[in-house]
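Problem 12. The chain below contains 662 residues. Write out its predicted structure in C-alpha cell notation.
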Amino acid sequence: MNKNVYEGIHPKVRLKHFSKKEKDIIKNLSNEFYVTNGGTEIKLGYNSKYKYFIIKPTDEYVEMFNIEREIVVIFSPYESFEPRTLDAINYVYKKFERHRLEKICSIIISKDTRVEYKIQDIIKNDKESQILIPFSYKELLNINNPYFMKNRFKKHFYTRDLFAFESPLKKDIYFFGRNDMVYNIANRHKSKENSGLFGLRKTGKTSVIFGIMRTLEKMDEKFVFIDCQSPAFHKRRWNKALFFIISEIIRQNKLNINLIKEDKYTEENAPLIFEKQLKTINKKLNNNILLIFDEIENITFNISPTKHWANELDFIYFWQTLRSLFQKTSLFTYLIVGTNPKCIETSSIQGFDNPIYNQIPYQYISGFDVSETKEMVSKLGSIMGLFFNDIIYAKLTEDFGGHPFLIRHVCSLINKISPSKRPTKIDKSVYREAKRKFNEEYSNYINMILEVLKEFYGDEYEILKLLAIEDYDSFYQHVNTSTDYVNHLLGYNIISRNNNNYTFQIETVKKHLCKKQKYKRLNLSQSEMLQEISNRRNEVEPKIRKIIRTQLMANYGVDEAKKIILKIMGKSRKKNHENLSYSDLFNPRKSKIYFNDLKKVILKEWKVFKNIFSKGKQDFERIMEAINLYRNDAHAKKITQNEMRYFRMCIEVIETDLNNFL
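Solution.
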C-alpha cells in the first residue's frame, strides 16, 4: 500500500499546454489527489484532440477503493461526448505500458454536461469496461460540497457488480490467476511445441485463450483463433476446413494475400494448397503461427454434431494433414482446447491409427488456490466496497474448489445481500447466507459443470455419486479394479487423491450430488431409516391425493366422485365427512383420509388410474402395502437393511410414476 501520499502537484509537473479552465480543474483535483505527470496533447484521426495528466491516489482513496497505482485523467474538450474518447485512454496506457498505471479505473472530464449518463450507456454494452469516473468541466469548476468527488467515486465503484461476469473475459482488467499457464503455453509455441488444454464447462478455458492471445501480441507472435463450435467450420468437410483456416489467418491478421479459391481444395489437392498458402503467409508474417482450436469436441469423432466428423474419416484426414505438415516444416504449432480430451486419448478410430494419439502434451485447467482466490475476490470486492474477512478466502476455495466462475457468482450474491452503505465488512455469517442462496438458486450451474461427466464419462459420474454418498466400499471396489474410473475426475479437479484416499475438491459438488442422491446412502441407523420412510411417504401422499381428486372428478363429476370417496370410509368417518365439500375431503386439516384409503380408492377404480401407474393392479397393491408397512409411528418395529432396500425399491416406483404424470 502507498504510504504518506498527500494531495498536491509534483514540482516538476508542467501545465502550460492546458487552457485556463483545465488548469483550474487540475488544481481542484490536486486538493484530493497528487498530480504526478502533466501529460501531453493527443491527436487521434484528423480532428480529434485530447489532453491527459496522471494522478496518484492519496491514502484515503487507497483505503476506500483499493486503488494504489497512478490514474489516467483525460480531458474531452467537446460539447458532445463521444466513445472515441476511450481510444485516447488506451493510447495513454500503451504509451506508459511499463509504468505502474491503475488498469481498473480512469477519470474522464468532458465539456458535455450529460457525460455521466453517456458513460453508463457505454458500460451497459461493455461489461469488461474499466470503471470510468465521469465529470463535466462545469462540475469540477464549481465544487461546493467537500464530499462531491468521493461520492462520485463511490457511485461508480460501489454500484457496479464486478463479480457478475457470464461470458469469457477478453481483456486483462478482470483476469486473475493462471498467468503461469498462459505464459507456459505461449512459450511452448515459441519453442515450436504443440499444446492441449481441457477442463469442465465454465472453468475459464476461453478466458485463458484470450490471455494467451494477449500475451502473444505482446511477444509479437502470430496466431489464429478457430471456433470449432461455429457451423461455418464444423459443417465443412476436412479439406474445406483447411481452406477456412487459411482464410481466417488472412482475415484475422489483416494480410494482403491472394486466397486460393475454396473449390480448389479438393480431397487430393487440399494438403498441397494448404502448405503452399501457409508458406506464403509465413513469408509475409516472417513468423510461424499458432493455430488455436477452441471447442475441439465439435470436430472430434463420435461426439461431433456433424455426421462427417462424428462417423466418417474427416478427423483422420484433417489431423494427418496438420501433423504431417507440422513435422515437415516449422510453419505453425497448434493448441487444442475443449472439455473432452477424447481426441488425443483414443488410439484408433474405425480401425485406423489416430494421428494425434499421445502426440500433444496437454493439461487440465486448474482451480484457484487460496492466494489466487484472495487476489481476485479482495481486489474486485474492495473496489465495490466489500472487505472480506481472511477466513472467507479459504472457505470459498474449499467449498467451490477454486472454480472462479462459481466463486464469482457466490460473491455476486454476497454483494446483493450486503448493506448498500459501503464500505462494509464481509464475515462468516454473510458468507453462509450467500452460500445457502447459491445452493438453492444456482444448482443449474453445478449441473452444467457435471454435464461433461454425464455425457462423456458415465461410469466416472456413477463412481462420483458413490463417493458423494460415502458408499466407500462400492467406490473403492471400482477404483481398486481400475484407476481409469477416476482419471478424469482427478484431471478435472473434482476430486483429489492423497495416499490412495479420495476426497471432493469441490465441496459444493458433493453437497449437490448428495441432495440428488439423498435416498441412496447405505448403512443407515434405525432413526435415519425411519426418518427417510416418513419423509418419502409425506412427499408422495399429497401427490396421490391430488391425482385421485382430479381424476375422479374428471371421470365422474363432483357428486359421484364424492360418493366414491365416502364409500371407502367406515360409518363413523363417513358421517363426520358427509358435510364437507369434495375439495375439503382431500384437505388433511379438515378430513381424515389415510394412506391406506388412497390405495383402496385407486384399486377400486383401477380403470381410471391404470394408465398413470406403470405396474399392474396386483403389483401396485403389493407396493403400496410395503410403503405403508414401515410407517414411522409409535409401533414401528426394528427395520432390517433388506427391508429398507425393499421399501426404497417400492417407493421409487411410485415416485417415478407420480413425477412422470404430474
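Discussion. The chain has five domains: 8-158, 179-364, 370-441, 445-516, 526-661. Students who got a different answer should revisit the alignment rule from Section 12.3.
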